[in-house]
Amino acid sequence: MAELATIARPYANAVFELAKRDNHLEQWARMLAVLNATTQNETVALLLDSPDMPASAKAYRLAEVCGDELDDRGKKFLQSLAEHDRLALIGEIREQFEALRAEEQKSLEVEVISAYPLSDSQGDALKQALNRKFDKEIAIESRVDQSLIGGAVIRAGDMVIDGSIRGKLQKLAENLEQL
Predict the structure, then answer these.
(1) Global pTM?
(2) Cα(69)–Cα(89) distance, integer angstroms
(3) Rounded distance, CA 94 to CA 28, Å?
(4) Number of domains in the chain
(5) At what angle do helices 42-49 and 25-40 cross, to 10 degrees?
(6) How far apart are CA 176 and CA 179, in angstroms?
(7) pLDDT tens per residue, range 128-145
(8) How many CB atoms lie within 10 A of CB 134?
């Protein structure tokens, strides 16, 4: 959703600059992760979507649920989002904050979804290749999806490399449909 990303960008940039200035990148990353996880809870999501409660009360309740995981800055951030009816952007703000943090720290989180578990040597080789390509420290998170049949899908930042058998079959089917 490009629109959500556009609306969330100034908030993510502001939080990132504040965190960077105060040397609190890790603390803000943790607070945003807690906020995001909390808003994913079904009960909390219903509360945030309720038209019967003012936004400031929603922010207060959300801060209450997060407890000690939020400091005063995090609570003020929530109130600021509430004042502008932007509580629904927490997930997008976190995502953009993490991208900015990774860029600052010259690291890149890469998700590898493969049909079979990666061996240590495969993981190391992939890490080295991506390190050369992006000139960043690479952190690989891998998971298995047997529906890929074979191969893997690699997500690095905004780039997706689909080397799965399923992906190749889908592309072949699309090409055949165009004939």
Answers:
(1) 0.62
(2) 19
(3) 9
(4) 2
(5) 90
(6) 5
(7) 998 888 888 888 999 999
(8) 16
